[in-house]
Each structure stands twice: as C-alpha cells, then as structure tokens.
Amino acid sequence: MIMGSIINYEFDWQKILSGQYLEWILQGFQISLSLMLLSSLIAVVLGVLLTFGQLSKHRVIRFISSLYIELCRNIPTLIWLLFFYYVFPELFSEPVKTMLNTNPSLNYWASIAGLSISSSGYIGEIIRGGISGVSREQVSAAHTLGHSQWEIWKYIIWPQAIRICFPPLVSRIIHNMKNSSLALALSVHEIVWATQQIESITFRGIEATIIATLFFLSINYVFSRLALLVEKSFLTDKKLINKTEKVKDVA
Amino acid sequence: MRKGIVFIFCLITASILLTGCGTVKQESILDKVLERGVVNIGSGNNTPPMNYIDESGNWTGFDLELSDAIAERLGVKLKRVVVNNKTRISDLANGTVDMVASNLSHTRSRDEQIDYVEPAYLWTGKIAYAKKGKFKNLTDLAGKKIAVDQGSNAYIAIQQEIEKVNGAKPDIQTFQSSAECFLALKQGKVDAFTQDSVIIAGVAGKEGVEYEPIGGVYSPGLYSIGVPPNDSKWRDKISFILQDLMRDGTYDKIYDKWFGPDGKFPLQPSAKPVLPKEAFGENQLYVWPD
C-alpha cells in the first residue's frame, strides 16, 4: 500500500525547476539564509546584553532583564512576528505609522525582529547558565589573589562559561534558523513560502517540499558540523589548560 | 559519512510518505462511503460567508449548509475535515477527503489534479478592492501592492489581467487568510486586496463602506464541489444530488438565507447558477434534464 503510493506518484522535477518556480526557489534560498544569519546574529548580541542585565548590580536592570526574558520565552515566535508586522506600526502616531505601514520591507524586518527577540531570551538564559556554572570558589580565590574584575572575566569565567554554554547555544541557533520559515506568514518570500506558492499553483507539493527539506537539512548540518569543529579546536580541555596556565603565569 | 547519507535518504523517504501520494482507485468512493456510513467533506474555516467560525463559535457558512444537505441526501453521517486554500487540492488527490466544498473555483490547473461536480454552485467573480476614490481602473494597479490569500488563483488571475493591458506587473503579497489581507489593506500595507466578490463582502462586513471595487469583476469564480479524480460514479452521484437540491428548492432556501435580499450577505447581482434569461426565461437553474 505504502510502496504502491510511492510508485504511483509521478515526480515532475522539470516543472518546478524551471521558469518562475526556479526563480522563487533561488530567491527563497537567499532570503531564508539572510533571515537565518541576521536574526541569529542579533539574537546572540541581545542575549549577551541580557546576560549582563541579569547579572547587573542594579535591581531595576535585573528586573527589566528577567521580564524581557519571560516575555521572549513564553510567547510563541509566530505571535512575535505577527506583533511586529500588524501591531507595532499602530503604536506610533501618524507620520511614522504610515511610513512603517507602507514600507515594502516591513514584513522582512518584522520577521527579523520577531525571530531575534524570541531567541534572545533563550540565549540570554543559556549564557547566564554557563556563567553561573563556573564555581564561585574560583572567582573568590582569584579575588583573593588580587586579580582585577577584567582578568577574572577574561581568564576564569569566560573560558569555562563558553565551554558550558556553547552546545546549547548552537542548538538554539539551529532552532532559530528553522523558525525562519515562520516568516512566510508575513509574505516574506523565503524558501517555505516558495514551496507553498509552487504547491498552490502547480500542486506539485512533494517535489517542492523535498527541496525545502534538503535546504534546511544541509544548512543546519553544515552549521552544526562547523560548530563542532569550533568546539573541538578552540574549546577543548587542552586549550582550557593553556588558559589556566596563563592565569598561573599572571599570578 | 555513509551513515549520514543513509539518514538523509531515510528522512526523504519519510517525508514522501508523510506528505501522502495519490492512490489507485479500485472501487468507487460511493461504495466506500455507503459502506462506512460516513462521508468526509473538507471545508475551510476562515472565509466568511462561505465557511467560517461565527461569533458564537459555530463552524458555519454557505459551504457547510450545502454539505449538510448533500450528506443528508446520501443518507450517511457527515464528518467535516478542515482544509485550507493550500491543502484542499492535495487532500482530494490523496483521498483524505471524499469531497471539498470550500470556496473552490473551477480552474484548469486544478482540474488537471482533481474533478469537479456539475454545475458550479455559486457563480461569483473576482474584484480588486481598495480605498474609495484611490483607483479608477484595474490597470491603475500596475506596480502597486496587492494582497492575495495564498492558494487563491487570484495570484495568477490579477497579474494576467493587469499585464493584458500592458501595465507593469503588480507586487503581489500573499497572506494566510482573507481577514489578514483585509487587515493589511486597512493598515495601508497594500494598495488593494483581490478575491472573489462574495468573500470580500463577507470579510469586509460593515467596514466595507470605506472601500469599493475597482472596475468590474475580472475573472469568473465558479465555485464548485471538488471530488477526487477518475471516479465518475462518485462524481455523477454528487452532481445528481446537487441538481436535485436545486430542483426541489433546498438550494434556493440555503441561498436565500445567505445571499438573498434578506439574507446575511445580500449579493447583487445574484450568484445563482441560472441559464441565460433570453433563452430560458427567469431563474432557470443550471440542471441537466433527466
């Protein structure tokens, strides 16, 4: 039965790999990639800022940071996207509102904003988790030995924190790259939009879906291999030992 | 590395299986439906007045009441399946549903994939809708942003219509529902919204006073019931039932409730499938003789 249905589907790659359909697919690759990279980058930057906010001495900053993190984590990404597209421009008064609403790239930037905000909360928590994973004794020992705050961060906290938070950070970024397909709800012509559009016109949904699947699979596979490479070459124990030796030298 | 390739292969196979594929029909759907005692009818739920969820949370609309009547004539229970503009064709091709009544216009490209019941039960047409006084003719929309419900054939129809008159291509923005299209129009994100006139009337509702159709109807939207391909026994059965409903006045009753002069969404001119007045007289419905 199942085998039968595979054989009975006549794959027609020619149709969707030509003309306007191919154009949509290629454009989809580009837009998806730019959504993935830009939103991940912004999310990491925001996440680092959030971490500092969480660790701040000021109670107000700490409060704002944790409020922000809760909002990021507890609201679905799609809602963030829809918020930035439909609601955000309405918060402003007339000239700005119309300017935002009539801007042809509003959907793209609303997607970037939604994706990065949604991920930044997680990333902030991941980094904070890495930092709090570094034992307090080491920090107070370094204090006792007369190291400056900067040296403690540079030689003791960061090297270990990065090692702890790197793998979850990579997973979260991959998650964010997959989330980029949500932008289709805002008519951003990314790859899943292209496949849906092709399906709704040609009804060759399977071919189009296979292309999108392979795209996500290969992009995320390459990214996670690269991340593993980075982890192995820069964040292994060997390097860490070197760093701790440096600390000894400084001491 | 080889393991990776095998893994990718497995994933592709799985995705093919999950997407579902057309199957060979050995027996007619009619026999299967009667045997099960249940007919699966696909309808959408976000296109008022054809199919939508009303204020009190009921799934209702013209398509749903028509399918109720058809299921009743078949003498089987009705199981509703939610479809949307993008899934309704593949659901039919896969056999997920036995028929689709979901503001489905009869188009050639769709007819290559599925079959249609005769006649089209609602004769409507596409209009482009914009702020009053902003545009005069459809060609004014060349180069402008136009909202389209993704999966609607308006995507192709409006471009052809505008290009025909040698205008520049419009910039089509696709949304996931007609309500989102209208919201985008209200907020000024797009210059116009194009869809079948009956859907626009339903979506715009009372807010419609600020908007108007630009030019006239530009592409016929002949709403028809879709059925899986290559099953003429089933297709005939539903066609006969639909025509029986038209003959005995059940269709008129449903039509008047929704689109009649005192209906929920009065339609002017009428969208009833009637034969030309000159040849057949007033209100002669499109029904095959015995």
From TrEMBL, chain A:
Membership in a protein family: Belongs to the binding-protein-dependent transport system permease family.
Sample GO molecular function, one term: transmembrane transporter activity
Listed name of the protein: Arginine transport system permease protein ArtQ
Family matches, as InterPro entries: AA_ABC_transptr_permease_3TM, ArtM/GltK/GlnP/TcyL/YhdX-like, MetI-like, MetI-like_sf
GO cellular component: ATP-binding cassette (ABC) transporter complex
Statement: the UniProt record of this protein carries the keyword Transport: yes
Keywords linked to the UniProt accession: Cell membrane, Membrane, Transmembrane, Transmembrane helix, Transport
One matching Pfam family: BPD_transp_1
GO BP, one annotated term: amino acid transport
PANTHER family recorded: ABC TRANSPORTER PERMEASE (PTHR30614:SF47), MEMBRANE COMPONENT OF AMINO ACID ABC TRANSPORTER (PTHR30614)
Subcellular location: Cell membrane
Domain called ABC transmembrane type-1: residue spans: 29-227
Sequence intervals crossing the membrane: 31-55, 67-88, 205-223
Organism of origin: Ruminiclostridium hungatei
Keyword Ribosomal protein: no
Membrane topology: Multi-pass membrane protein
Top-rank lineage group of the source organism: Bacteria
CDD domains assigned to the protein according to its UniProt record, in alphabetical order: TM_PBP2
UniProtKB/TrEMBL annotation, chain B:
Residue ranges constituting the Solute-binding protein family 3/N-terminal domain according to the UniProt record: 38-262
Organism classification: Bacteria, Bacillati, Bacillota, Clostridia, Eubacteriales
Species in which this protein is naturally found: Ruminiclostridium hungatei (Clostridium hungatei)
Name of the protein described by the UniProt record: ABC transporter glutamine-binding protein GlnH
A Pfam family assignment: SBP_bac_3
GO cellular component, one term: extracellular region
Listed InterPro entries: Bact_solute-bind_prot3, Solute-binding_3/MltF_N
Alphabetic keyword roster: Signal, Transport
Superkingdom of origin: Bacteria
Protein family per UniProt: Belongs to the bacterial solute-binding protein 3 family.
Entry-linked SUPFAM superfamilies: Periplasmic binding protein-like II (SSF53850)
GO BP: amino acid transport
Keyword Ion transport: no
UniProt keyword annotation of Signal present: yes
